[in-house]
Amino acid sequence: MNTMKQAYIVAAHAVRQRFAEQHPEDLRALDNIEQGHVAVYSGVYDQVEQILKQLSIPFRTNPGKRGLLASKITFVNCSNLYRQRLVDHLPVYVEGGGWLITSDWALGLVVEKAFPNTVRKASRYTGDEVISVEPVLNSLWDEVVVLGTDPQWWIERGSHPIEVLNSDLVRVEAASHDLMRRYRAPSVGVSFTWGRGYVFHVISHFWCKRSRTPTGRHKGSSIDFLKAGMRLSDKGIAKIFEQARLEPASLNFAQIQSAATSTELVAQLCIRAVRNDTRVQPSRQQRLLRQIQRMSRTLTS
Questions:
Q1: What is the C-alpha to C-alpha distance for residues 297 and 301, in angstroms, rounded to an integer?
Q2: CA 119, CA 100: separation in Å to the nearest integer?
Q3: What does the pLDDT look like over 262-282, one tens digit per residue?
Q4: Does the structure show a pLDDT above 60 at 80?
């Protein structure tokens, strides 16, 4: 078993433990997801279904039109070829209230075609690199990437940077100074509503193949991230490694950080799709409270 697969096993247990300790209602929602709620279309380069399996989320693979329309959330993995029939069905699915989650090459081959004048792939391709990530305040991502712990996201060689065409409609969920500097396209994740539904796209893949250790902290203990990044209890951390049947020393901070970031994002998307509540905007008081909490976590991390 390779190291990143081990990291994803630990990450799934960590996400479930974080929900148990901090958001028990989310854990209940996760456990109540039914077989027909989640659909996954296979890809060549990304395998989000591996994360769903680790989270024990049931899903259907490559369902026909009827199965697609019955699902609440659909993941379309990065690939170099998609059936035209799928691309044609997706606007109807989203307009009717479905949630579509896509990664990397699906940007130009699916999203750009199915949802015109929203986003498109930029003219340049990326290298094989790991970038910094800065979540936008009150975005879906601000519960996933924790400030003060040097968040990072792995980018595949040949990934498609995201160009936003309609800034009034499209919301940037997370951005990167690295992407801005290198490709003049800073978006890491974007979302927009379409009819009664919702589209969420990320550059590169949910199933990360590697991480990097640019600092001493990244080379440090995986327990450090579980404490500082996910704010888990000592008892909870011990339970995670017992369930995963792994030793904490088998993974470093960077590996569990990368796996946990994408794993929790997948979990949050599934939960919110079933609830259909991602688009609920917090009140000004809630926004200020969250900002103060994030600043406090950053200062004490």
A1: 6
A2: 14
A3: 999 999 999 999 988 644 444
A4: yes
Query: What is the structure's pLDDT at 277?
Result: 67
Interval 119-135 mean pLDDT: 87
* pLDDT greater than 60 at residue 203: yes
Count of CB atoms situated within 10 Å of the CB of 134: 17
| Residue 289 CB coordination number (10 Å) | 12
Q: Are 174 and 141 in contact (CB under 8 A)?
A: yes
Mark residue 117 as left, alpha or beta (left: phi above 0; alpha: psi -120 to 50; beta: remaining).
Answer: left
CA distances, 78 to each of 187, 188, 284 (Å): 17, 15, 37
Q: Is 30 exposed, middle or buried (0-12, 13-18, 19+ CB in 10 A)?
A: buried
CATH numbers and ranges of domains, the chain? 3-300 (3.40.50.880)
Q: Which token pair is 90?
A: 């997706």
Rounded distance, CA 179 to CA 177, Å?
5
Q: How far apart are CA 50 and CA 67, in angstroms?
A: 20
Q: How far apart are CA 139 and CA 15, in angstroms?
A: 18
Which residue spans within the chain are E strands per DSSP? 38-41, 60-61, 73-76, 99-103, 119-121, 129-132, 134-135, 152-155, 162-164, 171-175, 187-194, 197-202
Question: Which of the two residues, 197 and 149, has the higher pLDDT score?
Answer: 197
Rounded CA separation 217/231 (Å) = 16
The pair of three-digit structure tokens given for residue 211, joined into one six-digit string: 């991480």
Cβ contacts of 137 within 8 Å, gap of 6 or more: 287, 290, 291
